[in-house]
Write a structure and sequence with these properties.
The protein is elongated and about 60 Å long. It has a two-stranded antiparallel ribbon. Strands 3-4 form a two-stranded antiparallel sheet. It is α+β, with helices and mostly antiparallel strands and 154 residues long. It has two domains: 86 residues, Alpha-Beta Complex (Homing Intron 3 (I-Ppo) Encoded Endonuclease, Chain A); 45 residues, no CATH class. The chain is 31% helix and 14% strand. It starts with 8 loop residues before the first strand and ends in a 14-residue tail after the last helix. Helix 4 crosses helix 5.
């Protein structure tokens, strides 16, 4: 059996242990492969230090630093608790057009909804705005971009 890769880190001024030894997810979380399965290093460290993680729980970071692997900075939370923590700390910057992968802005979302109400098909809208038809469906049924209120398109 292959020997596990050693975990290496540097400590920053906030006491975060910034992982330098392992690759990261797109979100910046260090990950490791155990038995052919990828998992966040924070989850593996939690289990090693504190025991099993209950089903449906995340390992959250008090420091809000995804690269941190300091177990003292971790706490367990449900997805709802994690979102509430994010909002309380004003970290909800990755929603809507501020999301790094957003292809639309709020005015385009309003325009999509307006055109859809006027009978333009989802396929036509997808082609016009350069997104997938499922994206249009999520917008018109408000499963995404819920924060965008109707109003004048600027």
């Amino acid at each position: 059996m292959k020997k596990p890769k050693p975990i290496e880190f540097v400590e920053n001024e906030r006491g975060c242990f910034i992982c330098t030894s392992h690759g990261r997810t797109r979100g910046g979380y260090p990950r490791l492969n155990r038995g052919g399965k990828w998992q966040h290093l924070s989850r593996w460290l939690w289990a090693e230090c504190f025991g099993e993680i209950p089903k449906g729980y995340y390992v959250c970071h008090r420091c809000d630093n995804p690269a941190c692997i300091n177990p003292e900075h971790f706490f367990l939370g449900t997805p709802k608790m994690n979102t509430a923590d994010m909002i309380a700390k004003s970290r909800d910057h990755c929603m809507g057009e501020r999301h790094s992968q957003a292809k639309l802005n709020a005015n385009e979302v309003r325009e999509i909804r307006r055109l859809y109400r006027r009978g333009v098909s989802r396929l036509q809208l997808a082609r016009k705005f350069g997104v997938k038809e499922g994206t249009i469906q999520s917008i018109v049924y408000r499963t995404s971009w819920r924060s965008v209120q109707e109003g004048a398109v600027a």
